[in-house]
Specification:
Blueprint (H helix, E strand, L loop, with lengths): L1 E6 L20 H8 L2 E4 L1 H4 L4 H9 L6 E5 L2 H6 L6 H11 L6 E7 L8 H8 L8 E4 L8 H9 L3 E2 L1 E4 L2 E2 L10 E7 L10 H14 L6 E5 L6 H15 L17
Parallel strand pairs: 1-2, 1-10, 2-3, 3-4, 4-5, 5-6, 7-9, 9-10
Antiparallel strand pairs: 7-8
């Protein structure tokens, strides 16, 4: 199953393109969850919500909805994976209020954080087995057999990422689920993705993961509603190729379409 969504849902320029003009912002999550089956929450990276907020998201979304949550930057960017026990415990103490809506936890590492495989291993072992973790290193020193071995041992996914239509990380399969983030395409209007780029990523995912293995796909190119349009197009291409895909809206408008 390919689960397709966007990185966040609260973007003002999506009003009129995805959200109806008269829909209050307090109802945007419900509207989003009616169209998509998953979302990646980025604001937890900057300010970790209280447990009540996560519980409210669970109450406001349907039973099949899945929320991937980006780990607080306190662990990844301030502590830089040092002394992970308290940050991970605090994060889980809040995010687990999502219950069965909790999807993968995303650990995005700073671009200037060089490989520290022992620190990564110490962090990953703090997550319970039932919580999926996806790791997005961004310094080239991480691309080693030692990194891959830690991810495989801890059953964590290496995030596949794209910028300007090109992979920015190795396409290692390290566990039984995939995680793809699409940051910025090369098509017009910016930052849209072209059909050829989207079709390539459909093929890469389905070559690596079986129909019974989830692959989470999040579009992070939010300006002008590009993420919505590209997510819909990606899902259509995957379905046309015969692959099971989570629900997406029937159509959406992007700037300058």
């Amino acid at each position: 199953m390919i689960l397709v969504g966007t990185s966040g849902w609260q973007y003002r320029d999506w009003r009129g393109r995805f959200y109806p003009q008269g829909l209050p912002q307090r109802l945007w999550l419900e509207h989003f969850a009616a169209g998509f089956a998953t979302v990646e929450v980025n604001n937890a990276f900057y300010r970790l919500p209280e447990r009540d907020t996560f519980a409210a998201w669970r109450a406001r979304t349907p039973a099949d909805f899945c929320v991937a949550v980006k780990m607080s930057r306190y662990l990844t960017h301030i502590k830089r994976l040092r002394d992970p026990q308290e940050p991970v415990a605090r994060f889980l103490g809040r995010a687990t209020a999502l219950g069965d809506r909790l999807g993968p936890v995303l650990l995005q590492l700073p671009p200037n954080l060089r490989a520290d495989v022992e620190a990564l291993d110490a962090t990953l072992r703090l997550f319970p087995a039932q919580v999926r973790v996806a790791v997005e290193p961004r310094h080239p020193s991480w691309w080693t057999d030692a990194t891959r071995a830690v991810l495989e041992r801890r059953r964590a996914a290496l995030v596949w990422a794209d910028r300007l239509g090109r992979p920015v990380a190795p396409r290692w399969r390290t566990t039984d689920f995939g995680y793809l983030r699409l940051h910025e395409g090369r098509a017009r209007p910016w930052p849209r993705y072209g059909r050829a780029a989207l079709r390539s990523w459909v093929g890469r995912l389905t070559d690596a993961f079986g129909a019974d293995e989830p692959a989470y796909v999040y579009f992070n190119n939010d300006p002008g509603g590009a993420a919505i349009v590209d997510a819909v197009a990606f899902a259509a291409l995957a379905r046309r190729a015969g692959h099971p895909v989570s629900r997406v809206p029937a159509a959406a408008k992007a700037a300058d379409d």
